[in-house]
Isocitrate/isopropylmalate dehydrogenase family protein (Candidatus Methanocrinis natronophilus), 325 residues
Amino acid sequence: MSWRGAEKRVALVKGDGVGPEVIDATLAVLEAVGASLELVPIDIGYGRWKRTGVAMAGEDLETIRSCHCVLFGAITTPPDPDYRSVLIALRRGLDLYANIRPFSAEGIDLVIVRENTEGMYSGVEKLDEEEATTLRVITRRGSLRIAEKASQIASEREKVTIVHKSNVLKSDILFLRICQETARRWDVPFDDMLVDAAGYNLVINPGRFDVMVTTNLFGDILSDVAAGVIGGLGLCPSANLGDRYALFEPIHGSAPDIAGKGIANPVGAIRSAAMMMEWFGDLEKARMIEEAVGWTLAHGVTTPDLGGLSSTKEVSEAVAKRLLI
């Protein structure tokens, strides 16, 4: 999808916890790279829910739909049965069925392609004093869409690995078969692996993977494993893609324990903005942001989670300074 020459209207959701801090850092980098965006601030999330009893209203979703995409910080999801996840609501409301999470480090270059709208996050649940039930929903449509996206990405790389648990879960037999059929149709080399074996191999031999495609919960968990392998959650970006809309966010959570301390790692959010610029078709600005981030990390300007002494602002300032050279 290309928006060259078009108005780039971006819904800006700073969110909760460290979300505002990493988004402010990201905006400084976008300004330095010369991104031309119309930003539409939207206050949704746990903070708003505590103030008003509503995390996201219907009119908020309509405002977001009037934009091309969302730049998203982080939102707290409390263990309260009355609270509905804003992020899941956005993924469903905008039909963002593909969660793309790239991971790169020395000797590692892989992409996890995660189905984003069904599986264990179907929302079909029951909770009472004696039993709690969540329905795992795997559909042909959902499996086919994510298989197509993974095969498309793999067609420009090397191969795709289908991650599943079909030896135990009957629903994964359908998912596996559709992914295999789709990879054959795309003429993409593929293999498959049980999810527990995939988690093990991500730790001991991550270089064996190129593109991994899997269901919602498995992709959520494996992404955090991959983040740990390359150095931490704070480094990792993601894109939530649909046929019309997109949402870009770091994969880390709201981290309320460090909110306001100025030490949150902004790199995942900044790299998410680079993915946003690529989605808009501005490949040069995306490349420039990634290069500036790489230079900053290589020169030891890092936050405490990576063993550094720099603040959130100092990291973003270093990235922005590199862009202005």
Q: What stands out?
A: The first strand starts at residue 9 and ends at 15. The chain has two domains: 1-96+242-325, 97-232. The mean pLDDT is 95. The CA atoms of residues 60 and 142 lie 26 Å apart.
